[in-house]
Write a structure and sequence with these properties.
The complex is a heterodimer of chains A (297) and B (300). In chain A, 29% of the residues lie in helices and 25% in strands. In chain A, strands 5-6-7-3-8-9 form a six-stranded mixed β-sheet. In chain A, strands 2-1-4 form a three-stranded antiparallel β-sheet, covered by helices on one side. A three-stranded antiparallel β-sheet of chain A has the order 10-11-12, covered by helices on one side. Chain A is α/β, with parallel strands linked by helices and 297 residues long. With 300 residues, chain B is mostly helical. Chain B has 13 helices and no strands. In chain B, helix 2 packs antiparallel against helix 12 (225-250) and helix 3 runs antiparallel to helix 11 (204-221). The radius of gyration of chain B is 21 Å and the shape is globular. The termini of chain B are far apart. Classes of the chains: A alpha/beta (297), B mainly alpha (300). Chains A and B meet through helix 2 and helix 5 of A and helix 8, helix 9 and helix 13 of B.
């Protein structure tokens, strides 16, 4: 079964074509990473799949229907936001929002004592929290949880309604190396165990390499899709960027993309620190500073 | 008979309840406390204290304008508080919003004084307007208050979950199809109307103390939603009634006792949390500092 299908898709925003001629096929139960430099339209693609942004050209089908038609079957984690230290709301209540945050009214006190549905919902919440291993800190204010703990709770929130498709926008951003690896491994486990299709947006493939099925690489207004070993190559990326790109394999298994041109539009300062631009000719070595996959696995 | 405070609590309460004006005052304060505690809980959650304060200030020019136009003061309160709420609502960025709120508040004070001097200054005295005259509350006013409180609480009960979602995590709520900005406007309108209704009876400043303090104290004591709301209501009733009682026995203004009591309880709650959770949160901070090399600059 196909979870997502796009044919010859193109998107325009503010008079500028973000990408065009994009073909995507994602099978149910696949773990796919969406990669690409800043401004290449990764989050734009997510918005298209959620039905928040129309295509300028081509077709898109999500879970067998128009994008946006089945959003209740999609678990979505927007680009990372940190709950500040003073947020006095329990992680558990944040998880619960994934289940009932869109309903009218208020939960009644003692509902679990009288209503079977309330008990079933409590089991769903407990299950999602246990799945991401957050039992210990789910009762604490989320502002006091570490970045990795917050991210696990947010994944539990996306999971709590047992979605068929999980769309995670940069869930590894801002996490330290062990947490990046642990969250990537957790996402793969959930993908395999519950048969849920996962789309994960990232700007560095290295922490994900051991866990991925395929990647979708967006660059230069176009896209390439396939297993990492076929897509992240000098030939494919040079074709996408329309400029010479070299992919180096380090001895410990990491991929380093060299010669990646500056993106025309930076989203802001948030990604700047992660990428080693700075070479004098307008080309930066994107030296991925992240740990080797065999250590992470 | 002069008020006489004894060490016998039962006798003190019996003395308080012997006068109809005191009974009315305690009823009015109780209704306001319950409403303010719940509305204020959302205000603290949403970090809209500044907006709440500004809306309570709007009652002042509202009253002055109504007096100038020869309308009932209540009309002025409602119109100005609602207009203030709608002006503040619908701003996209936090920076823009706080600038607008500040401007609205400054204009509110200025307009209030101008309107008052245009009117000729024979309006019920300014002090009553700002600090309330809760001891002069009539039975009819208590009924009006109860009606407004019921409306405000019903609105919040209807919106509850959605408003909570939109307050805690606006981007995700928006992605899930919730009208985040409409919810924000609706909440400010409830806040404005609640403030307007209560300001005319308890005074502008007393409302604000009851709106902010109980919710802020409850927030220090527990992160749980239901417990926090319940605590907020209990604390608001305690603060309002004890404040009123002390005011009766000492002949000093009730606003002073209410706000001082609120401050003392807040300091106690804050201290307790610091003693209890200080070590844990220091650990979290250290772990964060170690764990995330790119730090907390990662915004959304």
């Amino acid at each position: 079964m196909t979870a997502i299908e796009c044919r010859d898709a193109a998107v325009r925003r503010g008079g500028r074509t973000i990408w065009s001629g994009v073909d995507i096929t994602v099978a149910a139960g696949e773990f796919v990473a969406i990669l690409g430099p800043n401004g290449s339209g990764k989050s734009t693609l997510v918005n298209v799949l959620l039905g928040l942004l129309p295509l300028a050209h081509g077709t898109a089908t999500v879970l067998g229907a128009q994008p946006g038609a089945h959003n209740e079957r999609i678990g979505y984690l927007p680009q990372r936001r940190v709950f500040d230290e003073d947020t006095r709301v329990r992680g558990r209540d944040i998880v619960r929002l994934g289940l009932d945050g869109r309903r009218w009214g208020v939960p009644l006190p003692l509902a679990t004592r009288f209503s079977a549905r309330a008990r079933a919902e409590r089991r769903l919440i407990d299950g999602a929290i246990a799945r991401v291993g957050a039992d210990v800190y789910a009762g604490r204010p989320i502002g006091e949880c570490s970045g990795g703990e917050q991210q696990r709770l947010l994944i539990a929130q996306a999971l709590v309604r047992r979605p068929q498709l999980l769309i995670l926008d940069e869930p590894l951003d801002g996490l330290d190396l062990p947490n990046q690896a642990a969250v990537a491994a957790l996402v793969q486990e959930i993908c395999r165990e519950q048969g849920v299709t996962v789309l994960l947006v990232a700007h560095d493939v290295n922490p994900l390499l051991p866990y991925l099925d395929r990647v979708l690489y967006l660059a230069g207004g176009r896209a390439a899709m396939g297993p990492p070993a076929q897509v992240i190559t000098s030939a494919t990326l040079s074709g996408l960027y329309g400029a010479p790109i070299e992919v180096l394999h380090t001895s410990d298994g990491r991929l380093v993309v060299v010669g990646q041109p500056e993106a025309p539009h930076q989203h802001g300062p948030r990604h700047g620190a992660g990428q080693g631009h700075g070479a004098g000719q307008g080309h930066g070595g994107d030296e991925h500073r992240h740990g080797p996959p065999h250590v992470l696995g | 008979m002069n008020p006489h405070l004894t060490l016998n609590l039962v006798q003190d309460v019996r003395e308080l309840l012997a006068y109809q004006f005191m009974v009315n005052a305690l009823e009015a304060a109780g209704v306001v406390a319950v409403m303010a505690a719940v509305v204020g809980w959302f205000m603290v959650l949403r970090r809209e204290t500044f907006a709440g304060h500004t809306l309570s200030v709007m009652a002042f020019p509202g009253a002055a304008a109504a007096a100038l136009a020869g309308l009932p003061l209540a009309v002025g309160y409602f119109v100005f508080c609602a207009a203030g709420a709608l002006t503040i609502a619908g701003r996209r960025s936090v920076a823009q919003q706080s600038a607008v709120i500040g401007t609205v508040q400054a204009v509110g004070w200025a307009a209030g004084f101008v309107l008052l001097s245009l009117y000729g200054g024979v309006l019920e005295d300014l002090e009553t307007l700002l600090f309330g005259s809760i001891l002069g509350v009539t039975g009819g006013q208590v009924l009006t208050l109860a009606l407004v409180a019921a409306c405000a609480l019903a609105a919040l009960a209807l919106l509850g979950r959605r408003l909570f979602f939109a307050s805690v995590d606006p981007p995700l709520a928006a992605a899930g199809g919730l009208p985040v900005r409409t919810l924000a406007s609706a909440y400010l309108l409830v806040l404005g109307l609640a403030v307007a209704a209560t300001a005319q009876i308890t005074g502008v400043l007393l409302v604000f103390a009851l709106l902010l303090a109980p919710a802020a104290i409850a927030r220090e004591l527990t992160p749980r939603i239901g417990l926090g709301l319940g605590l907020s209501v209990v604390l608001a009733l305690l603060i309002a009634w004890v404040g009123l009682g002390l005011s009766y026995f000492t002949n000093y203004p009730s606003g002073f006792f209410v706000s001082t009591l609120a401050l003392v309880l807040f300091a106690l709650a804050r201290g307790t949390r610091h003693l209890r959770g200080g070590a844990a949160s220091r650990l979290t901070r250290r772990r964060r500092a170690l764990g995330s090399p790119r730090g907390q600059a990662v915004g959304g």
